[in-house]
């Protein structure tokens, strides 16, 4: 690999990992803002969304510049293509964290719901999938990426159960419909975060092995 291209690749890796760390922190804080009804924390996530947006644009511009100047091939080309896609997924995860934080701000103004809905396990699973997908990128690990893909069905099942739990709660406490619908949105956003983490894992597999697995992830299970 030419020395200039090597430097660009290393620079890209640092930038995407820095963005990943910021997004991981946002997801963690968004989940906490729901669990602790912390409007200050939630508002911080909402106010700082522009930082993630700016970082995403910076990574994209760096990728396009590297493609234009160095015309990489083989694994270097796959790396840059994967970073472009992962970059987009991370920005979307940041947006979903903001959506969760907005739900936290609303819920803090409402009476506490009369049923216990366990978001902590689902939030922990989504955060773990995101962390593992980024670890797979750092370590170029197909096995770690595969672990993430294998978790997707589990969090889908959690989301379906949450839908049933909220549906039952609405029947029992119709006066709390607004709050319960917002809580259902939180579940959906966590499930979408897990989907994007799975996308990242699939892109890591593509980068390492040159195989597109998003339509046949079962081959890696």
In brief:
With 221 residues, the chain is mainly alpha-helical. The chain has helices at 3-35, 39-47, 49-70, 74-107, 120-139, 142-172, 177-209.
What does this structure look like?
This protein has about 220 residues and is mostly helical. It has a single domain, classed as Phosphate transport system protein phou homolog 2, domain 2 (Methane Monooxygenase Hydroxylase, Chain G, domain 1), CATH 1.20.58.220. The relative contact order is 0.14. The protein starts with a helix and ends in a 12-residue tail after the last helix. The chain has helices at about 5-35, 40-45, 50-70, 75-105, 120-140, 140-170, 175-210. It contains seven helices and no strands.
The helix-and-strand class reads: mainly alpha
Task: Write the CATH fold name.
Answer: Methane Monooxygenase Hydroxylase, Chain G, domain 1
**Any idea what the CATH superfamily is called?**
Phosphate transport system protein phou homolog 2, domain 2
| H/E element order | HHHHHHH
Using the CA coordinates, give the radius of gyration.
19 Å
Low-confidence stretches: none
Give the tally of structural domains: 1
**Main beta-sheet annotation:** none
């Amino acid at each position: 690999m030419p020395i200039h291209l090597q430097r660009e690749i290393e620079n890209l890796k640092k930038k995407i990992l820095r963005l990943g760390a910021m997004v991981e922190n946002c997801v963690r804080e968004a989940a906490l803002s729901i669990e602790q009804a912390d409007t200050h924390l939630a508002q911080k996530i909402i106010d700082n969304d522009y930082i993630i947006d700016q970082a995403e644009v910076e990574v994209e511009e760096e990728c396009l510049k590297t493609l234009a100047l160095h015309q990489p091939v083989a694994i270097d080309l796959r790396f840059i293509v994967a970073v472009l896609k992962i970059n987009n997924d991370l920005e979307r995860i940041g947006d979903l964290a903001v959506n969760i934080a907005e739900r936290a701000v609303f819920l803090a103004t409402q009476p506490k719901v009369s049923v216990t809905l366990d978001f902590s396990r689902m939030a922990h699973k989504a955060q773990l999938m995101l962390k593992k997908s980024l670890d797979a990128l750092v370590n170029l690990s197909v096995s770690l990426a595969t672990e993430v893909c294998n978790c997707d069905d589990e969090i889908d099942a959690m989301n379906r159960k949450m839908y049933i739990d909220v549906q039952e709660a609405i029947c029992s406490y119709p006066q709390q419909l607004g709050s319960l619908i917002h809580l259902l949105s939180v579940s959906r956003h966590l499930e979408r975060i897990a989907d994007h983490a799975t996308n990242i894992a699939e892109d890591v597999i593509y980068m390492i092995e040159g195989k597109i697995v998003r339509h046949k992830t079962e081959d890696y299970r």
